[in-house]
Amino acid sequence: MDKGKGGLDPQDWDAFRDEAYRLVDAGIARMRDAGAYPWQPVPEDVRAGYQIGDGVSAARVERDVLPFHGGNTHPRFWGWVQGSGLASDMLSGIAGSVLNANVGGRDHGAVYMERAVIDWARREMGMPEGTSGVLVTGTSQATVLAFAAARARALEDVRKAGLAGRRLVAYAGQGVHSSSTKAVELLGIGTDNLQYIAMRDGQIDVDALRTAVARDRADGALPFLVVGTAGSVDLGLFDDLDALADVAADEGLWLHVDGAFGAWAQLADAPWSDLTAGIGRADSIALDFHKWMYVGYDCGLVLMRDEAAQRAAFAARPAYLTGADRGLAGGDPWYCDYGVDLSRGNRALKIWYALEMFGREAFAAAITDNCRMARLMADEVRARPEMHLGMEPVSAICVFSARGGLEPEAQSTLNQRIAETLQETGEAVFSTTSVDGITMLRAAITNHRTRAEDVRAAMAAVDRLADALA
Ligand SMILES: *Cc1c(COP(=O)(O)O)cnc(C)c1O
């Protein structure tokens, strides 16, 4: 094609169509055979080749783009907490690109679809009708929105006056995700005013929480927010959300639940569904669809019990954005009144597509199966006397040391080497975390492609490397 002369639409739509079909075929093959394509480092010449100017073709995308993914589509990828992506994303991606919807507001299909998707999530989480929400990039952004609404409820004039010397105090368990820390930083509350409450049996000690609130109040501070965690990122631990909701009600605190991945245990079979008991009592929940609901990046959600509080924190419409009763400027409420973004992409479509294509029960089964796989991995660890379990898996995270008998430093080095080597050989992706000062292998199984044979094969690879490296 004669680039630069042809404008911004294809000159030959038939040729465009051939390219599109070729890319669709390549994408389907890669998704169907995801196990054949582990992570690999990006070669120097490929990196350099991304410079603008060489032109594009489906063949070039197959060669230079598709092979260099982040590994998380592979059945033995369990690093950090990442989702595995769905075949439905391919089709919703096409439909979404054709629409090019701006879901900041107004009256069009994507707005109504987002409402339907949010309402589905609201019901799954057991929150009442009238709960508001907005799809965002992820839990980090959702957390900022939730804390901002809590802040505006605590200080009604905060949008105009700022904090003005008033000391808001938030509470969270030790080990709360860094997204909560970032949010208090961004909102001017400051990490000095985020109190880390001691944990008891892996949960916020609610007596210690009550004591801290009373102390801060006596000091003249304004306790306003408590953060419960449904699925801690390190070990997959869950706070007692019912107990936190009781404290929040007694003390007039806003209860926010960080349920980035763990909120979806709500869909699992017992006993895992019990982990989220009480989540529907929260004032706000932040969660991701791109982790344990497996949809493509990026896609998170904040839900807020008090629609007026969400609107009060964000609504701002200059004259050019005035809504109307009819025409394209209808469609109230507008999503720009529920968060920071004015222009917003169509995140609802990929959720809608996935739920309509596979059905809710398939997601519930995959989430349950992931918990079973974490349990299977723990059984495999226990079957090897030389290994050591960091902790009994609570949900879908299993943490272990490949050689429990060594000195802490030697264990840490060995586990680190095993993780790196398996990433490079493409056999499996574990990340690492520290338990009692020892770096351990950590598998977060939020991957619908993982089967029992993947777990067994990965453990055999750990055996082999532990023998070779110890
Ligand atoms: C991943 C995660 C976050 C941050 O979510 P993003 O979608 O990455 O912004 C927050 N909390 C927990 C517990 C997480 O696992």
Full CATH superfamily name of the largest domain: Type I PLP-dependent aspartate aminotransferase-like (Major domain)
Bound molecules: pyridoxal-5'-phosphate
Mean pLDDT: 96
CATH architecture classification of the largest domain: 3-Layer(aba) Sandwich
Question: Which helices and strands appear, and what pairs or packs with what?
Answer:
Blueprint: H1 13-32, H2 44-49, H3 58-64, H4 88-99, H5 109-124, E1 132-136, H6 139-154, H7 158-161, E2 168-173, H8 178-186, E3 194-197, E4 199-200, E5 203-204, H9 206-218, E6 222-229, H10 241-251, E7 254-258, E8 284-288, E9 300-304, H11 307-314, H12 348-358, H13 360-382, E10 388-391, E11 397-401, H14 408-425, E12 431-435, E13 438-444, H15 452-469
Parallel strand pairs: 2-3, 2-6, 6-7, 7-8
Antiparallel strand pairs: 1-9, 4-5, 8-9, 10-11, 11-13, 12-13
Helix pairs in contact: 1-3, 4-12, 5-12, 6-8, 6-11, 9-10, 13-15, 14-15
Bound molecules: pyridoxal-5'-phosphate.
Concise account of the structure shown:
With 470 residues, the chain is α/β, with parallel strands linked by helices.
Please tell me about this protein's structure.
With 470 residues, the protein is α/β, with parallel strands linked by helices. The chain has helices at residues 13-32, 44-49, 58-64, 88-99, 109-124, 139-154, 158-161, 178-186, 206-218, 241-251, 307-314, 348-358, 360-382, 408-425, 452-469; strands at residues 132-136, 168-173, 194-197, 199-200, 203-204, 222-229, 254-258, 284-288, 300-304, 388-391, 397-401, 431-435, 438-444. The chain has a 7-stranded mixed sheet with strand order 1-9-8-7-6-2-3, with helices on both faces. It has a 4-stranded antiparallel sheet with strand order 10-11-13-12. The chain has a two-stranded antiparallel sheet with strand order 4-5. It is globular. The model has no long low-confidence stretch (mean pLDDT 96). The protein binds pyridoxal-5'-phosphate.
